[in-house]
Amino acid sequence: MKLLKIILPVYLILLSCNAQAQLPPVFEEAANTRLRTSELSKVYLTPQRIVWQTDTTGTYLQNTQQLLVKGNGQVAVNDQNLTRFISIDDHKPGILLDYGKEIHGGLKISMGIRPDKTPLKLRVRFGESVGEAMSDIGGEQNATNEHSLRDFIVEVPWLGSIEVGETGFRFVRLDVVEGDQNAPIKSIEAAFVYRDIPYLGSFNSSDPRLNEIWKVGAYTVHLNMQSYLWDGIKRDRLVWVGDMHPEVMTINTVFGPNEVVPKSLDLARDQHPLPQWMNTISSYSMWWILIHKNWYDYHGDLAYLKEQETYMINLLDQLSTFIDENNAEKLNGGRFLDWPTSVQPKAIHAGLQAMMVMTFEAGSEIMEIYDKPDLAKKYTNVARRLKKHIPEGNTSKQAAALMALADLADAKKTNTEILKKDGVQRMSTFYGYYILEAMAKAEDYDGALDVIRTYWGGMLDLGATTFWEDFDILDVTNSSRIDELTPADENDIHGDFGEFCYIGFRHSLAHGWASGPTPWLTQYVLGIHVMDGGNTVKIEPHLGDLEFAEGTFPTKFGILRVKHTATPDGIITDLEAPDGLKIIE
């Protein structure tokens, strides 16, 4: 691998509309050097703080603050002023480091020279939270080594370095395994692996909380843009097609077209030849169609859309066989919307019925793009048939939102009676995006902004730097932050909660499906609605209680810049559009 001088900061979210903001600390060191492998890059980061250590007397841990000083990453025979790990049988020292922000990658540990040339055995524990890094495998809090190893023993070579780990983390605990050790440690650096792409979209407003939420959503998806588009960097590290939909909407908004999306969509298609459902879940095959429609809407890549023609038509025809004589869906395979609704059959049916409607409407529009009017008409008729069946008995916000989006239920009535009931209780980070979309359809933009501030902002209040696989607002009571040791009389927000597949520390704290506020704020607050295969943008802002909102947006012609200012006489809009882009105001 060749050492390269960095050209662009990895976190270019701050264009001309937001020149006062600062580059996050986790990226500042990327301004010097990086290692590039294929489409991914690597930088080495020093810890930002020491959260905890077994000894503060200087007996077993010496000069630990040196670990926070940026070095050159190269051991030498005459290194001075190193950190020392000193162990006896009765005290094997340990230390907990904080790298300041959730990252994806591993750890590089370097040891200096000492008389004993044997390797130093260290136990390494990665954690997305302090609690996870301090935990043991198993137990009630359910720490695991599944999908990616986060708890293991390594040997650090004499006068050398070792690089280990590939997971999502912010915190690392290291413990000396054996007694009678005196080890000079030069550095313990995080090896941060990321896709080196600029942040072309941006959002800035008079509300710093909304601004931070937009950025955190963008960063969460960025971390998951690895060799493929994953759902989580700790787990599951897989291409889950349904999870991809909010992620792709965020990529459209922040990065513009990126090869990781078609690469991942094609992988799902090729891994699941018909009649298989993608990821064994029927709704995920429908999300595949809906993602393709959104991808074309934003980027207008007809050649890529046409590559899907045979599979697309066959999938739509297969879906059309799963409708009964009462026009109700009867899909087989995994019947799944999201985890909180997975035990509610009425919610699942209502959501799947709505998704069938949206899928066949999207399919009809795709057939128009393919210039296949007979198929367009056929799939429109299927959608109309499905609309004759209105599911009853659903009370979940997730399925209700889909029904409103599919015109199976009145959006304003749904918003009042279901979506706004009990505030942000019984939401999910995945389907939170569709709840926001349904609230926008009900023209409740102020209510949606409150949901974003309360629900996604609630994760920030607990120390989140990325958005989580799931979040229950009721768990906040008497819970500590993820970046602190949990007091004995408080709950660990990470380890003490969770259901289904995300019990305790198995819970992913960097899940791309949770990024919904990022595309939503751009579309409905900045008012950027993409049309006509990316050739046209309709500007329709909704500032709510904001004094101003401004931002950038990547189009197929270049960067669109907008700024909206609230005045007593209405909103004043300033635009800077690239040549070729049609603007409708």
UniProtKB/TrEMBL annotation:
Pfam families: Bac_rhamnosid6H (PF17389). Keywords: Signal. It comes from the Bacteria. Coiled coil: none annotated. The keyword Nucleus does not apply. Residues 1-21 form the signal peptide. PROSITE patterns: PROKAR_LIPOPROTEIN (PS51257). Residues 200-475 form the Alpha-L-rhamnosidase six-hairpin glycosidase domain. PANTHER family: ALPHA-L-RHAMNOSIDASE SIX-HAIRPIN GLYCOSIDASE DOMAIN-CONTAINING PROTEIN, C, PUTATIVE (AFU_ORTHOLOGUE AFUA_3G02880)-RELATED. This is Alpha-L-rhamnosidase six-hairpin glycosidase domain-containing protein.
